[in-house]
């Protein structure tokens, strides 16, 4: 299927762990795959429009094949992963997959005369994934159609945000996990209006709906009712009892064993691990144990040099960009100058917004504290990024500014070593179906 062929390539390059599969499970999964609804392979609407979209899909797949698989990605974060941060991230790493902030479907539908503000991005940001949110099928479908013009490499539906404005008043985000059939319908509606793969980002559960079987039921239902083949799993449940989104990233315990259980029970799907991972060493440790891909959030934003700077060489085995921080700042200044010079009366970002992604560039380095204090003062009167850098960079020693990116991070390399010893019991529905299928087969053999 064209919509997911890029992930076929992804799967072919993914390390497998010998403990994940055994003959018993392979028989079960083979028998189950023969009975999956046709919508699992291609939605009925997608089949009807396949001929007319064939050319665009081929071009999209050809475009995506230029990139490495999403072994490493930067999480979608509201008020963080905007165009400015993504530009800085791409200067530091050429192969990381970047996600946008979540864009609410209704915003796109009601702002059709101003779509560039929400959807436009420099071509250098590929590979890039658009995350959308919403709970209205018509608006999600229309939003995907509008976004399709901008040539994102994937469209992702937010089923994991625990914010009160989203999961509470908005009735979407992580609350969608309570209605997996609707999510399957939504993913089919989105897929029918775009020429790229679609994916879901979710938690492992919410409130009291936090068992492994409930998570599996969500995955199974969505994948059975849509072309969705890729799930990003935040390995914490969400609590919707009034705690903040920040506390929802800390209080619920991490259950990485749920993620690795999904690898075992759904080998035909692709899963990216998210939550609690802060170093490239941990990324490589997770992939060594079979993780298809790993997503970092705050660590990639607040310490981009030590995280993104190691991705190309340590995760993808490619040469790093070989830039110093000074050179990174020079390229970023060129971007900022182009943004400020080409606004043509449209939305003009503030200097503070463009400086914001830089505030983690000198994380834990000598002079970092002084530089941030000078930055706070400079932002009160500087009007250009050039003036800002001239006024503040004398706080950072030259050896820090001129040093290039370290090749490897070893922190966390032993993490996940024992995760396969604590996996949850296999998904019971699949176990039951396997047992039933084997019973039927044995009965047929006896009849013969």
UniProtKB/TrEMBL annotation:
Signal peptide: none
Keyword RNA-binding: yes
GO function term, MF aspect, one: tRNA binding
Pfam families: Dus
This protein's UniProt keywords: NADP, RNA-binding, tRNA-binding
Domain DUS-like FMN-binding: 74-390
Name of the protein described by the UniProt record: DUS-like FMN-binding domain-containing protein
Source organism of the structure: Aquilegia coerulea
């Amino acid at each position: 299927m064209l919509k997911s062929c890029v992930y076929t390539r992804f799967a072919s390059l993914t390390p497998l762990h010998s403990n994940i599969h055994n003959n018993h499970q392979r028989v079960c999964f083979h028998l189950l795959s023969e009975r999956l609804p046709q919508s699992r392979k291609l939605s009925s609407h997608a089949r009807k429009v396949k001929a007319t979209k064939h050319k665009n899909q081929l071009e999209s797949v050809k475009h995506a094949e230029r990139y490495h698989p999403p072994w490493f990605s930067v999480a979608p974060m509201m008020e963080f992963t905007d165009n400015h941060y993504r530009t800085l991230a791409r200067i530091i790493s050429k192969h990381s997959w970047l996600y946008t902030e979540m864009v609410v479907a209704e915003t796109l539908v009601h702002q059709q005369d101003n779509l560039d503000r929400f959807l436009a991005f420099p071509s250098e940001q590929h590979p890039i994934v658009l995350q959308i949110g919403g709970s209205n099928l018509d608006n999600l479908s229309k939003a995907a159609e509008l976004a399709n013009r901008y040539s994102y490499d994937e469209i992702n539906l937010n089923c994991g945000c625990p914010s009160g404005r989203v999961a509470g008043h908005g009735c979407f985000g992580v609350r969608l996990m309570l209605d997996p059939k609707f999510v399957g319908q939504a993913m089919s509606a989105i897929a029918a209006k775009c020429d790229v793969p679609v994916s879901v980002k979710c938690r492992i559960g919410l409130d009291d709906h936090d068992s492994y079987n409930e998570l599996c039921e969500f995955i199974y239902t969505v994948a059975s009712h849509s072309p969705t083949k890729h799930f990003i799993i935040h390995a914490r449940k969400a609590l919707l009892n009034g705690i903040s989104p920040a506390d929802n990233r800390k209080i619920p315990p991490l259950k990485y064993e749920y993620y690795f259980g999904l690898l075992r029970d759904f080998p035909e799907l692709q899963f990216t691990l998210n939550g609690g991972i802060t170093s490239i060493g941990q990324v490589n440790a997770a992939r060594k144990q079979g993780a298809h891909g790993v997503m970092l959030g705050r660590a990639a934003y607040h310490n981009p040099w030590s995280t993104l700077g190691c991705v190309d060489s340590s995760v993808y085995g490619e040469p790093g960009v070989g830039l110093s921080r000074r050179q990174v700042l020079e390229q970023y200044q060129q971007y900022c100058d182009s943004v400020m010079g080409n606004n043509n009366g449209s939305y003009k970002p503030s200097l503070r917004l463009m400086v914001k992604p830089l505030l983690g560039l000198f994380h834990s380095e000598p002079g970092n504290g002084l530089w941030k204090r000078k930055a706070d003062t400079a932002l009160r009167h500087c009007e250009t990024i050039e003036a800002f850098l001239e006024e503040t960079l004398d706080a950072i020693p030259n050896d820090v500014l001129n040093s290039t990116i370290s090749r490897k991070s070893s922190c966390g390399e032993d993490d996940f070593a024992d995760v396969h010893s604590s996996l949850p019991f296999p998904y019971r529905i699949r176990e039951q179906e396997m047992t039933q299928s084997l019973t039927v087969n044995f009965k047929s053999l006896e009849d013969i």
